[in-house]
Amino acid sequence: MQTTAAVKTWEKTKLQNLARHKSGGYYARMFLNGKEIWKSLKTKHFSVAEARLAVKQKEHRERQSREIDPSNAKMTFGQASVLHLKRLDEKVSLKSRTRQYWKETHEALLRNWPELEGMEVRKVTPEACGDWAARYAKVASASRYNNSLSLVRHVIDVAIGGGVMSTNPSLAQAQKVSFAPAAAA
User: Fold this and answer.
1) What structural domains does the chain harbor?
2) Which regions in the chain score pLDDT beneath 70?
3) Are 19 and 59 spatial neighbours (Cβ–Cβ below 8 Å)?
4) CA gap 174, 179 in Å, rounded
């Protein structure tokens, strides 16, 4: 009977959180909220892996600092939009008419998508954004449509900055929905 030796998949390196796979590629090993995260450094050279590890660790620390208490992770779109509008009010470089326009755009958005304000921002899906965008493109002017879509993106970016979510589901809308102007009367 022939016995086979166990194949060692990972090889330790002299650097903490850096491991070499049996294929020769280097990986960064980090932890977030008690979970182990492995990120490929996409190199087979130790010196390059060492430099990329430092960058990955810096990004990881920034992500950890953005993390919020899970009890606050149930941010609604309305709460995030209030934060966004508050930040616009704090920008001294904006004219008062610009601030007023963004508030009008916010009101128009909520009139056309009323369930959005109470919806958890994490539950806003690309499909929901697409459905709203298709409806709104039929009734809004080109500039109002584009600015409303921009407002949705900015509000979701507030949630991303707070660590509530990691990706913006509204980013692909510009490619998916082409503007169809409202019928002229």
Assistant:
1) 10-67 (1.20.5), 72-176 (1.10.150.130)
2) 1-6, 33, 64-73, 172-185
3) no
4) 9
